[in-house]
Amino acid sequence: MSDQAILRFDAVAPLRARVAAWRGAGESVVLVPTMGALHAGHLALVARARELGRRVVASIFVNPTQFGPTEDFSRYPRDTETDLALLAEAGADAAYLPDIATMYPPDFSTRIVVDGLTEGLCGQFRPGHFSGVATVVTKLLNQAQPDIALFGEKDYQQLLVIRRAVRDLDLPVAIRGVPTLRETDGLALSSRNRYLSAQERAVAPRLHRVLTGIAEGLSAGAEAGPLVAKGHAALDAAGFAPVQYLEIRDAETLAPVTRADRPVRVLAAAYLGRTRLIDNVAALRS
């Protein structure tokens, strides 16, 4: 399949008309929001979308409101034609590629803020990030009007924030998480991995190994404090700097966990050189 087989929409009205026609014919629609620079992780979302619905729409929009003033909006990788070809090959029916003026007109003045879940973790180090995410995702859901929308679990805090916004605003869409896709050495797939030098790429999988070790320790009944301290030391020794956070949180509320008998997530964000890596793994404390 080539990119000629995929429908392309740049404006809201024709996208809505196409989705309405599909839904009117009894065909369910699944949305896969992306910022482009597609990799196998995104294509796994498309594959899962095809399992869950009859029609798949993927959006490509590099959202400026979720980047901080010192972050990499301008250098975020963009390759639209390659992305469209990959989406077509993966079986997406349509791509939605709005421009900034469509998403944020000059007098745009509305923001969505999700309290609680956005405090701590990435929210501490990226002020305004989750407001930008919640706002743009709400707009995409309203524009595309899908039955289901898929998000990767690598951005776990983001997934919970979106679920809460959709619940609180009574949006008629089911939000589904999809497990993180990884390289064979454990590194979570990310568009930002291409920023890593060869030496940094060799070190990067240690982040996942540290998280997995903590999760295994928790499941075996070990104390959280020593596990986290040991994990910090391992990341420091590997060359991650700074380690912004390495924490154990409740899997549903993201509340800090000391002892619990319910699922938790071990989450981390750390820099290798100029590249910020995030990852998380699930654990069940005994």
The chain-level structural class is alpha/beta
> Can you count the helices?
10
The CATH C-level class name of the largest domain: Alpha Beta
Q: Which of globular, elongated, flat, extended, rod-shaped describes the shape?
A: globular
Helix and strand element order: EHEHEHEHHHEHEHHHEEE
Structure description:
α9 (206-219) runs antiparallel to α10. It contains 10 helices and 9 strands. The chain is 38% helix and 20% strand. The chain is globular and about 55 Å long. The protein folds into 2 domains: 3-178, Rossmann fold (3-Layer(aba) Sandwich), CATH 3.40.50; 191-284, Pantoate-beta-alanine ligase, C-terminal domain (Pantoate--beta-alanine Ligase, Chain: A,domain 2). The mean pLDDT is 94. It has a 6-stranded parallel beta sheet, sandwiched between helices. Strands 7-8-9 form a 3-stranded antiparallel beta sheet, covered by helices on one side. By secondary structure, it is an alpha/beta fold.
Task: Spell out the blueprint of helices and strands.
Layout: E1 7-9, H1 12-24, E2 29-34, H2 40-52, E3 55-60, H3 80-90, E4 94-96, H4 100-103, H5 122-125, H6 129-144, E5 148-152, H7 156-168, E6 174-178, H8 198-203, H9 206-219, H10 224-238, E7 243-250, E8 263-272, E9 275-284
Parallel strand pairs: 1-4, 2-3, 2-5, 3-4, 5-6
Antiparallel strand pairs: 7-8, 8-9
Helix pairs in contact: 6-7, 9-10
Structure at a glance:
With 286 residues, the protein is an alpha/beta fold. The mean pLDDT is 94.
